[in-house]
Structure formats: structure tokens, C-alpha cells
Amino acid sequence: xxxxxRDDAPEExxxxxxxxxxxxxxxxxxxxxxxxxxxxxTGSAVQAGESKFMELSSLLINHHLDAxxxxxxxxxxxxINPTLIQDVDAILSIAKLRNARIVEEFYADVPAGHLKDTxxxxxxxxxxxxxxxxxxxxxxxxxxxLMYQPTRDVMTIPTxxxxxxxxxxxxxxxxxxxxxx
Amino acid sequence: MANDFSADVIVVGTGVIGCIVAExxxxxxxxxxxxxxxxxxxxxxxxxxxxxxxPQYKQxxxxxxxxxxxxxxxxxxxxDATTDYLQLEGPxxxxxxxxxxxxxxxxxxxxxxxCWRLHPDDMQMKTLYGVGRDWAFDYKTLxxxxxxxxxxxxxxxPSEVELQWPPLPRxxxxxxxxxxxxxxxxxxxxxxxxxxxxxxxxxQARNSGVSYDGRPPCCGNNxxxxxxPISAKYDAASALPRIESKGGRIRENxxxxxxxxxxxxxIAAVHYFNPDKQSQRVVGRIFVIACNAIETPKLLxxxxxxxxxxxxxxxxxxVGRNLMDQPKISAQLLLSEPMWTGIGPVQGSSIIMxxxxxxxxxxxxxxxxxxxxxxxxxxxxxALAKGLVGKALDTEIRRLSACTARLTIExxxxxxxxxxxxxxxxxxxxxxxxxxxYYDVGDYVxxxxxxxxxxxxxxxIAELGAVESTIATTFTNSDHMMGSCIMGTDPGNSVxxxxxxxxxxxxxxxxxxxxxxxxxxxxxxxxxxxxxMKASDSIVEQLRRG
Lengths: 181, 546
Known about the structure:
Chain A is mostly helical. Chain A is built from six helices and no strands. By secondary structure, chain B is α/β, with parallel strands linked by helices. Chain B has one domain (6-545): FAD/NAD(P)-binding domain (3-Layer(bba) Sandwich). Chain B is globular and about 75 Å long.
């Protein structure tokens, strides 16, 4: 990719680059299977992968999750971790053995190493809104990223005011009043 | 005399200073052409950029402002990127990594909006304490210009006399009353009182409870930097449409690279490159260079000619010297009880009385404050790093976000001719010299840090009930660039006169932070804006005289 006006400045945070990256990430995510595999794969197979990703996400995280965000993250995570779907299957099997409904009921049984890393990568993605630590990483969610929700009764999610003109005070609710999300 | 390449007043730079001078000149019936090196963008673009910055990088205020190649600025806090434009050296090079943006509207896009005036004593450092320099005039002279600047920007502040700073009767009330505190600033205020210092509500260029100047009241988006999404905070970008409605012309992506003098040492023209690297010449009667205390001296030094072999306006050899800021020390605390920052604006108060005292003959004064930015992203990432899941994760995020506090010390610094901007051998995309900056905060600041501010900070940390604290050991930048075209009455050791007019060129004005003789420990913008008002009066008067 060449830039007409850029030959020395770093490209991180460049809007132009960001737009292109978003586009290329979606394409690259889709073709993380080889081009031949992609040609042979079906839309329903991709949907099945996304569906399993959401099923596991719902077990790992006991909050409302946006399916559209999940589909985008699943596609992007497959690009980083080619065995994602198999990993998801394996973790789901562990949860089912326990008849687990919430993360606390099976997470300790997920073996340390690749599977546990995958499980936590999925949790981190939903909480932080990104799947990798890079200055030009794609942001899948900001105002709905889960790490902003446990404090949303008091702390502003920047640019999303929860108050009105001079409408805030020095009063705050108890720490034990966890918001529902 | 207005056409595409001429006007009565040519203003280089579209930040707060350029906009004040432009509007004052337009109101006096003069034609104005503004030249801006960077692009002009809509607010929503910056807001969307911010929202799409990954959480680990949201603290980099320049991240939503990708620079154009012809107008580079620091765009990242990554080490490899920050060395790219500003060439920094000296014992405290890190402390001059200034985060301004070269966009129409300038660095006010991501300023905090804080408007501390200088204290009268800040302007007499040599007389009172035997250090630094005295200003060429006193506080009383500056006071009416402060008032005008506060009304131009829309500054809210306390009406209670005991909460005002400096502690003098105001000659005019603030245009708006103060904003309320959230819990964090209230707790900090109470802790400060217990250790014997006063945390005052800051005067700030943010609309308080009411609309002002066509902008809405602050609703607590808690994002003053890197961008106020609703322009409740003054930024120069919001002044640009009004300037155009008054007939002012704004040309973005026009990188002025040369100031041309004539045989009488008047400024005849400025030359700029457009993004196609084509050069254009612009003529005028008065020229105002208002590009901040780094870009202004850089331009003057780049403009050397036969009559001015050290650069334009530089017969004194002081252009680029005396660089000042407020060397900053940051601390992060974990408290046993919730602090709850993140309600209201990102900054709203400070302990500033600590900038004054007889100790200033020995060491610097300083300002201390509690940052009020929401820390949910920091709390979230810290909790995730612990590998927690489920309810334990949510509970830990809430605890770490609510119980974390960030405190800041900003020290005053003396003007030192060795703290100097020169032209680097390295060139930017247009082939123009990059700025090279040598910076040493000096023993005056180091003594203050060791003997005065660090002990006080530790008292505050203890009083807040911290169970953990990390105090930075490196001075960092405050983005309050000052001093590099220093004001004075002696053309032999200063660059501009009392009206920010060049001693060497009668139709060249250099208002803003570069002209400031001292900086005190408060944010510099309202003093810069007051100087711009004073310079504007002089410009209008000079052109009336013909």
C-alpha cells in the first residue's frame, strides 16, 4: 500500500490506513482459510463457527452480548488463531460435561495452555473491545465493551455523557451496587 | 487590499491566538487571511477517530489527529514514532515531547480548557526572588486583557471571592459560574484541606450550565482531551466559522516556510507550500506568526536572509531560546475507598497556592491536581491482567476503576537561554528542517521536586488513604510551550516588545506562549490569549495610523 503524501511519518492512527485496515481485516478474516478452502466452504459453515463462538461466549460471560459484534470478532479471531473453532468445540465439551451455565462452573476445568488462552482471549475481547494489543488494532466495541459497564452508573464512558448541564454531584452509590448489563 | 494572496493582516496559524487576533482585526474592519499548515476537519471525524482508538492507546491525545505529511507533529507515544518529528536532546529531553497538533484549530482541540491567570508575583521573579526575569509590565496592565480573553473564550469560574485565583478582587466577574465537582475532586479537596492546602475550582473555558457564544453547556462527556464532542469547551475550531462569517479567509494545508523582509526590515511577504509542494507568496501590511512556541521560532530561524543572518526577528539571538513548559510528575494511587473520578470534565480543580512563597528564591513553585478522567478502561485492563472471570472480574473492574486516582505536579521553570530550539539537519516531507530541542529542567525545578513537591505529594497520597502508589521518576511534558520569542524592553536580550511586536521588524507580531517572560505553574493559555488581545489592539492602532 503506497501513500501519495507519506514517506517518513509513521502510519499508525492514520485515518486512511485505519479505513483500509478495517476493510482488509474483514477480507483477510474471511479468507484465513486458504483461497481454495474458501472456495469450497459454504456460508453456513462460517455461520456455524460464529454460532459456536457465541454459544461459548455466553457461557464465558454472564452478560448480554451483541451477536453482530460477536460475528465480527469471531471472524477476526480466526485470522489470529486458525484452530479457534476446534478450540471452541473443545471448551464447549468441557462446559457440557459439567452442565455449566455460567463461567464459574467450568472455567477451572479448562486446561492451562492453548485452550485456556483461547478462552481468556474471548473474554478479553468482549471486555476490552479489541482482540490484539496494537495501536492500529480494529476496535469492535467501545461504548458497549464490557469493561466500561461495571462502573457505568457513575463513571462516564468518554464522549457518552450520562449527565446533563452541570447535572453531576459528588454523591456516588455504594460499591456493592453493581449495574446490570 | 484583499485578494487570494493578500490582506491587511496575514495570520499564520489558526489556534486560539491566531483566531483571537483575526477576529479582533475583522471587528476593526481590516481584511484577514489565515494560513494553516494542517488540514481542517469536522468535529465528528475526530470523535469517531477517538472512539476507534484501541483502549491501550486512548491516553495518547494525538492519536485521533493523524498528521498530514506536510504538517508533521508527534502522533504517538510509541518510542519509535516520537523520535520522528521533534528531535529532542539534553538531560530532560522527554519533558519537551510536546503533544500539539497541526490542524486548523490548533492544540485547543485537545487542551483541558483550564484558564489560570498568572499571579502578580509571577511577573516579578527577578525583583522579588532574584531569579528569572521580570515582565515588561505588571499584572494591573494585563488585567483588562485577561478579562477580554475570558469573555472571548467563555471562561466559567467561582463567584465566591475566597475561591478565586489570584487572590485579588476581580475587576470583572467571570462570564459564567463554576462547574460542580464530582466525588473524586470533592474527596481530593477535603484531603488537601487536611494537609493544609486549598484545592480550588479551576477557571475553565467550558460552558457552565448555559450556552455561550453559540456553544452548548458542558454535559460531562469527560473527554475534554482529546476532543470535546459537543464543543462545550472552547476550541479554536469553533471560532473558524465565525471568522469566515465576518469575512476572514482561512487557507488550510498551507505550510509557511519563509518570512520575507524588505530593505527597510519590514516584512514584505510570507511564502507557503501547498500539498503539491508548489510555493505561493502572500503579501500584507501586518504579519502575525502564531504557530506555538516551537513552530514560530522554527519558521523565524528558517527565514534567515542577508539582512538577518541569524533568522528573522533574531538580532538578539534569543529566538528559539528560553523554552519553558511546566515539568510534570505523575503519580497513580490505589485507594482503600472509592475515589470515583470520571464525572464532569477531565480536569476541574487544582492546588495552586503552592506556586507562591518566599521559597521561590531557592526553588520552583508548583501546582498539584487530581485528574478527573474516567479510569474504567485502566481498571478494566488491570483486572483482565489478573486473569479473573465472571463476577470476580466485574467486581475487580469496579473496585480498580473507582479506587484508582491519578495526581499530577506541574512545576514552574526559569527561562534559560540554553533551553533552546535550533534547526535540525533532518528534514521533513517538504524538505524543511525539523526542530531540534535541548532541554534541561534545571536545579531550580529539581530542588523543588526533591524538597518541596514530592514531600507534599506523599502527604496527599497518605491522606487519601492509598494502599499502593507509583510516583513517576521522570519529568514529562505539560504541553504548555512558552518563552522562545521572549518579551522584554531591551532589544538586546528579548525578541518582542510589550505588544508582542518584533523589536527588529515593525510589522511583525509574535503573540502567544512564545512571548511569555515567565510561566508560573498554571496552564498558559489564558495569558497567551490576553497577550493576543493586547497585540491586536496594537495592530489595529498601527494600521489606523497608516
